[in-house]
Amino acid sequence: MSGIIGFQPLLAIVSHIFFIGVSFYALQAVIPEKIIKKNRVMQAQILFILLSIAIGWAVSNFFLEISYWSGKLPFMFS
Question: Which SS3 state, helix, strand or coil, does residue 15 take?
């Protein structure tokens, strides 16, 4: 039982880190020169990091919630 309890937080951490990385990779396709002011490189990098965290966290929570609720679905029909 304690192995299952310890698995959920580990899965959440790995999921969050994975999706933050994926969102950071996806944001590299955006051309920041068109929307960021000149000489604001550090601020642009911070913006990309924060956007990656926000998008990755939201997507990760979506998949974790789907996983959680799909696990509860069989109890609905029993």
Answer: helix
Taking only the tens place, the pLDDT of each residue in 25-71 is 999 888 777 777 888 888 888 999 999 999 999 999 999 999 888 88
As to burial, measured by CB atoms within 10 angstroms (0-12 exposed, 13-18 middle, 19+ buried), residue 60 is buried
The answer to whether the beta carbons of residues 70 and 33 sit under 8 Å apart is no
Q: Count Cα atoms within 13 angstroms, Cβ side, for 32.
A: 17
- Longest Cα separation, the chain: 62
Comparison of pLDDT for 78 and 44, the residue scoring more: 44
Distance in angstroms (rounded) separating the CA atoms of residues 65 and 60: 9
